[in-house]
Design goal:
The chain is an alpha+beta fold. Among the domains are: 140-236, Chitinase A, domain 3; 240-333, Chitinase A, domain 3, CATH 3.10.50.40; 368-470, no CATH class; 526-619. Helix content is 49%, strand content 17%. It has 26 helices and 17 strands. The chain has a 4-stranded antiparallel β-sheet, sandwiched between helices. It has a 4-stranded antiparallel β-sheet with strand order 8-7-10-9, with helices on both faces. A 3-stranded antiparallel β-sheet has the order 2-1-17. Helix 20 crosses helix 25. The longest helix has 28 residues, at 450-477.
C-alpha cells in the first residue's frame, strides 16, 4: 500500500473544498432571446407573451436528446409535443413557486453556471501554466514527513510557530512530529512516504515541491490546519530503466554475496564483475546486461519496483522471491512526452478537484484586476479594528471611518458607497423572500482574522460583479452555453415541481392510492390465485360473535367492504391483517384455511387468541398495499397526465409554423 496515500487519507490531506457566490442567473437567462435567433414558440399569446422559446434552443434540445436516445431517433413532431410539455412544467414551476429560484434552485444553478462558464473564462496561458506545472511535478516522486496542527486559528498558529522555532534551533523533526503532530503519521515521526502530483491537496503539494531536499518549510496552511513539511528525497519517476545484474540462487550464502557486493561497489566495470561472478547462464556472454526494463510484465513486479526506485550508478543488494541480486541502474528514462493525448489527460485532472479551485481563484484575481481593482489597505486595517462584520456594523458603525475602500472599474468606492452596496446586496433577498432567507451578516470563517474575512467579502462582491459581466458577454457570443444553462435551469424547476405535483406526499397518501386502486383493481391481478381477505385476531367471544353476525348478514361484501363495515360498527377488541397470501406465507391462514399445520399449534397472539377470517382465493387484490409499487407508478402517471393537461389549459402555446419548417434546415 502506498504509505503517502494512506497517511494523506488519515490526515484528510486529499479532500477538497470550494466557495460559493450568487450569480445573476435571471440576467443571464434574458440574454437567450436578445439574440437574432428567431422565436419558434410563444407560451401565452402573441399579445401577451408569458415566455418565448427560440429555434436554436429547440434545435439544441432535439439534436442532443435524439443523439442519446436508447430507443432510436424520434420524429421532430413527436419530440415537439414532449418538449412543449417539459417547457410548460418549467414555466408552471416559476408561477407556482416564485421563491424557488432564491433557495435550493439558486444554489444548484449557481454551481452549474460556474462549472459551465469557467472553461470560457480560463485563458490559454493560465491553462498551460497549471498543466505544465502538473506535468513537471509528475516527473518526480517526493519522500516527505510533516507536522500538522489542526485548525487555522490563533492558537494553532502560535503552536506551529513554537515548533518552527524549535526546528530552527536544531531539534529533530522526527521527535517534534511525534510529540506534536495531529496527524495519524505522528507515531512514525510524521513520515508520509512517497507521493507525486495529484496525490495531496494542491497547496500541500506546492509547498512540498518548492522545498529543497534536507530542509523543512516555513509553516503554511491548508483547509485542515497548519503544516511544516520536511523533504527527505526526490527521485525521477521512471517509465523505463537500463540496468545490469549479478544473480545468485536463494541458497547462496550471504557472506559470499556480500563479498561480491564489495567487489562490485569498488569496481569501475560492473559488467566485468557480473561476467565473473553472476550465476545466470548467459552472464558470461551479456555481462549481466538486463536491457531496457519497462513496466510491461516481462520482469517480475518486485524487480521492476526495486529498479525504478534506484538512482543511476548506485550499486545495491536485493533479495527477491526467487534469488539474490546485485543491481546497478545505468540509465533512467522518465518523461512521458507532453503530446496532445497527455495534455488532454492532464487538463481533465487539473480542471477538477482542489487544483481547479486554485485555477478559479486565479481567474477571480484576473477578473478583479482586469477591471482595475485596488484595495485601500490602510482603511481596511482601520475597519478591521472594529472587530464586527455583521449587518448592524455595516449600517451604523463604519460611518465613523470615512474614505476610499477600493477602486474598481473606474469607480472610487467610499464608505457610503460600500454601505449601500452591502445593503443592496441583502435588500434584494429581503424584498424577494423575506427575513427567513436573508443573510444578515458577512459569511464568517472563524479560522480567519476579521480583516481577512472583510477582504474576502469585498473581493467576492467585486468578483461577482465582474463575473456577471463576463458571463453575459459569454452568453451573447456562445448560444450553446445559454441553451445548456437553460436546459439545466428547466431541469431543476421541473424536478422541484414534479416533487410537488407527482412524486411527493400526495402520490404516497394511503387514501388517494386506495381510491385510485379501487377504481381499477381488476388491472392488478396476480398471476396465480391467492387467499385475499382480512384476518381478525379477536380478544373475546362477545366481539367474535359480533364480527360473525356482521359476516352472516353481509356475505355479499368483498373483503375490503367488510373490513370497512367492521371498523364502523365495532371499535375495539380486535386487530386485523389485510392482504393476499399463498400457502406458507401466513401462519394463521396455514392453520385455519390451508390446514397445513396442526390444529393444536399456537399461532395466535396472546392478547387476541380468537380468530376469524373473511376472504377467498382470487387473482384480484382488495388492497393497494398488496401491489403498492405498481399502484404508485400508475398513480404518478395519472397525476402527471393531469398536470400536463392542466398546463395545456392554463398556458396556451403558439407555434410559428414558418420558423418550425426551418428547424435543422437553415
Amino acid at each position: 500500500m502506498n504509505v503517502a496515500k494512506y497517511i494523506a487519507t488519515v490526515c484528510a490531506l486529499t479532500s477538497i473544498s470550494a466557495s460559493a457566490m450568487d450569480i445573476d442567473v435571471p440576467g443571464l437567462m434574458k440574454s437567450i432571446n436578445k439574440s437574432d435567433d428567431p422565436v419558434l414558440m410563444v407560451i401565452g399569446t402573441e399579445a401577451y407573451r408569458f415566455d418565448t422559446i427560440t429555434r436554436g434552443e429547440f434545435e439544441y434540445m432535439y439534436n442532443k436528446n435524439n443523439n442519446i436516445s436508447l430507443d432510436g431517433p424520434m420524429s421532430m413532431d413527436d419530440y415537439k409535443e414532449l418538449f412543449i410539455n417539459y417547457k410548460l412544467k418549467s414555466y408552471d414551476a416559476t408561477k407556482r413557486f416564485p421563491d424557488l429560484k432564491l433557495n435550493t434552485y439558486t444554489k444548484e444553478l449557481d454551481s452549474y453556471v460556474k462549472h459551465l462558464s469557467y472553461p470560457y473564462l480560463i485563458n490559454g496561458d493560465l491553462e498551460k501554466k497549471f498543466i505544465n506545472e502538473a506535468y513537471q511535478r509528475e516527473q518526480e516522486y517526493i519522500t516527505a514527513s510533516h507536522i500538522l496542527i489542526k485548525g487555522v486559528n490563533e492558537a494553532s498558529k502560535q503552536k506551529i510557530d513554537k515548533i518552527y522555532n524549535r526546528l530552527k534551533k536544531g531539534e529533530k523533526f522526527f521527535d517534534l512530529a511525534k510529540e506534536n503532530s495531529d496527524c495519524g503519521s505522528a507515531f512514525r515521526g510524521g513520515f508520509l512516504g512517497e507521493f507525486s502530483a495529484f496525490d495531496m491537496v494542491y497547496n500541500f503539494e506546492t509547498v512540498a515541491y518548492n522545498t529543497p531536499v534536507g530542509e523543512f518549510s516555513t509553516p503554511f496552511t491548508t483547509q485542515f490546519g497548519y503544516h511544516i513539511v520536511y523533504i527527505h528525497d526526490r527521485r525521477p519517476k521512471a517509465i523505463a530503466v537500463k540496468a545490469h545484474e549479478i544473480f545468485f540462487p536463494l541458497e547462496t550464502r550471504d557472506s559470499y554475496v556480500d563479498s561480491v557486493f564489495a567487489i562490485a561497489k569498488k569496481s569501475k566495470n560492473f559488467g566485468k564483475v557480473a561476467k565473473k561472478y553472476s550465476m545466470k547462464g548467459n552472464a558470461k556472454k551479456d555481462k549481466g546486461d538486463m536491457g531496457l526494463i519497462k513496466n510491461d510484465g516481462l520482469y517480475p513486479q518486485e524487480i521492476i519496483d526495486k529498479l525504478f526506485k534506484m538512482p543511476v550508478g548506485d550499486v545495491q543488494k536485493y533479495t527477491s522471491s526467487f534469488g539474490k541480486h546485485i543491481f546497478v541502474v545505468d540509465e533512467i528514462q522518465t518523461a512521458v512526452p507532453l503530446d496532445s493525448a497527455k495534455y488532454e489527460a492532464l487538463k481533465k485532472k487539473v480542471m477538477s478537484g482542489d487544483r481547479y479551485e486554485a485555477v478559479k481563484k486565479k481567474v477571480g484575481e484576473e477578473l478583479r484586476y482586469k477591471n482595475g481593482f485596488k484595495l485601500n489597505d490602510s482603511l481596511i486595517n482601520e475597519v478591521a479594528k472594529l472587530k464586527n462584520v455583521g449587518m448592524e456594523f455595516m449600517v451604523d458603525s463604519i460611518k465613523k471611518i470615512d474614505g476610499t475602500w477600493y477602486e474598481y472599474n473606474g469607480e472610487v468606492i467610499t464608505t457610503e458607497d460600500f454601505r449601500h452596496k452591502y445593503m443592496n446586496f441583502h435588500d434584494s433577498y429581503r424584498k424577494k423572500v423575506g427575513e427567513k432567507y436573508l443573510r444578515t451578516e458577512i459569511s464568517i470563517d472563524t479560522n480567519l482574522t476579521y480583516k481577512e474575512n472583510l477582504v474576502n467579502y469585498i473581493q467576492d462582491i467585486v468578483e461577482l460583479d465582474a463575473l456577471n459581466k463576463e458571463l453575459k458577454s459569454i452568453a451573447k457570443k456562445n448560444k450553446e452555453f445559454v441553451y445548456a444553462l437553460k436546459e439545466y435551469s428547466d431541469g431543476l424547476l421541473v424536478y422541484a415541481a414534479s416533487e410537488f405535483h407527482v412524486w411527493g406526499n400526495k402520490s404516497t397518501k394511503a387514501d388517494s392510492l386506495s381510491k385510485f386502486f379501487r377504481e381499477r383493481k381488476e388491472k392488478y391481478q396476480f398471476d396465480e390465485p391467492k387467499w385475499v381477505g382480512v384476518i381478525f385476531s379477536v380478544a373475546n367471544k362477545d366481539t367474535l360473535k359480533k364480527i360473525k353476525t356482521l359476516a352472516t348478514k353481509n356475505s355479499n361484501l368483498d373483503a375490503f367492504e367488510f373490513n370497512e363495515l367492521v371498523k364502523d360498527k365495532i371499535r375495539k377488541g380486535y386487530t386485523t391483517k389485510k392482504g393476499a397470501w399463498i400457502k406458507g406465507e401466513n401462519a394463521i391462514l396455514d392453520k385455519y384455511y390451508f390446514k397445513t399445520i396442526p390444529a393444536d399449534s399456537t399461532v395466535e397472539a396472546e392478547k387476541f387468541p380468537l380468530v376469524y377470517i373473511y376472504g377467498n382465493e382470487s387473482k384480484i387484490p382488495q388492497w393497494h398495499t398488496s401491489v403498492k409499487g405498481k399502484v404508485i407508478a400508475d398513480y404518478q402517471k395519472e397525476l402527471e397526465k393531469n398536470w400536463i393537461n392542466n398546463n395545456r389549459r392554463l398556458y396556451p402555446v403558439v407555434i410559428k409554423e414558418d420558423v418550425y419548417k426551418t428547424v435543422n434546415n437553415h
